[in-house]
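Progress narrative, Year 2. Work on MFS transporter from Reyranella soli advanced from sequence curation to structure prediction during this period.
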Amino acid sequence: MKRRHLLAAAAVVAIPQSGRAQAFPERPIRFIVPYAPGGSTDTSARFVSEKLAAVLGQPVIVENKPGGGTIIGTEIVAKAKPDGHTILLTPAAMIAIAAFGMATPYDIDKDLVPVVGFVDLPILLAASNSAPFKTVAELVAWSKAEPGRTVAYASAGIGSLTHLWGEYVKAKTGLPMEHVGYKGSAEALRDVIAGHVPLFADVLVPTATAVRAGQIRGLAVAMAHRSELLPDVPTVAEAGLPGTEGTVPFGISVPGGTPASVVMKLNTAFNEALGDAAIRRKLLELGFVPVGGAPQAYVAVLANEIAKWRKVIKDAKIPAPS
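Result:
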C-alpha cells in the first residue's frame, strides 16, 4: 500500500456527495470480523457493535469469517457492494501483508477505503519462569555475560507483527535475539511456559492472562503508558528499551467506491461509540487502547506502519511467510 494511494483515499473521503447515500443506513450492517468467534478481537467488535447500532439506528451484525490469514474475510468486504452496509474490522495482518508485498485476491489500494482507527493492541515482552532473568536489565546483562550468546524469542509465526517487532527491538538495542516461529500464539505460549524458549513477543491479549496466572513473567509492555490489564509490568521505556514502542493496530474499512458521505457517517458513529465512557473503560479492561479519529489519521497510521515494517523486513532479510 503506497502512501500516495492512502492519502488519495483520504482526500476522497473529504469530498461531499449527495443522493441516496444521505439515507444511509437503510438496512442492517454486516460487520465482518476476519477471525474466529470468541477471541479478544471478536469480543471488542461485538461490544462496540451494540453502541454502534444505537447510534446508526440499524442492527450491526458481527459475522466471523476466519481463514487465509485474514484474507478470506477481507476479500468479502473488498468485493462487497460499496454502500457502507458491509464493513470490515481491518486486520493488522493487512499491514504485514502489504509490507511483504504479498499477492492478495483484492487490491488494498483500490478495493478498501479506511474509515477510522478502531483499537490498538499493545505488544508484550514476556519470559519463561525458568529463564535466567526476571527483568529486561537482567536479560541484557545475561546476554552480555558470554561472548556469542543469543536469546531465543518465540512469536506467533514468521511474518507476524510480533515477530517483526522482535526484530525491531533487536535492531534498536543490539540484543542478540534469535527468532523461533510457531503456528500461532497458543502453541508458542505452551513452549514458553514449558521453558523450551525463554522469551515471548506477543500481543497483550490474551497472553496477559498467563502473566496474571503466574505462568510466565511480564518484562515490558510496548506502550508509552502502563496497561490497565498489567499495571505492575513496566513500559519498554521504564524497562530500559526506549524507542521500541509497538502496537498491533486495528481499524475499520469499507469497500472502495463507498460514497464519502457514508464513510464520514460511519466515522462519526464509530467515534461516538469509542468515545463512550463505559465502552472505553471496558476496552481498556480487555487490554485494548481505543483509537478513533478522522479517516486521514488512520490512513497515516497505515502508511507509517507499512513503511516501518517494510524497512525491518528488508534490513533483517525476513522471507515472506509461505
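Residues 295-316 form the longest helix (22 residues). The longest strand covers residues 112-128.
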